[in-house]
Each structure stands twice: as C-alpha cells, then as structure tokens.
Design brief:
By secondary structure, the chain is an alpha+beta fold. β1 and β2 form a beta hairpin. The longest helix is centred in the last third of the chain and has 20 residues.
Amino acid sequence: MARDPGDGEIVGTGLETAFEMQFTLRVIKGKQINWPRGEDDASIFTIGNARPLELALQHATTEMVRWLRGDYG
C-alpha cells in the first residue's frame, strides 16, 4: 500500500507545507462518536493524535474497531 506524505512522524519530525482544501462536515442527529473520523466514496479513516506514536495508533485503531462494529457489524 502506498503511503502519503505525512502518514506519521515516527521520529518526531515532519515536513509542513501550505495548501488549500475543501471538506464537508455533516452532523447526523442522534449519532455519537468518540473521536474525529472521515470517509469518502472509497475509504473510511480514523485519526490518532498523541505522544508517543504508539498511543496515537491505539486511539485510531480503537475508534476504527468501534466504527466497524457499530455501523458494519
């Protein structure tokens, strides 16, 4: 699987650059999530943000499991 730039800063460094993007937020009434997540026509993704990297990975993985169980059984 190809990795995009910025897919984790394992050694604590990263390359930052300016860009423009557009996205749409939807509020689904009655739906509760514990952490930000996203999807498009081809993918779903969760986010981890913590130090150390292993904790960020744990956050993202836990949220993905919750999502898959809740919405996809």
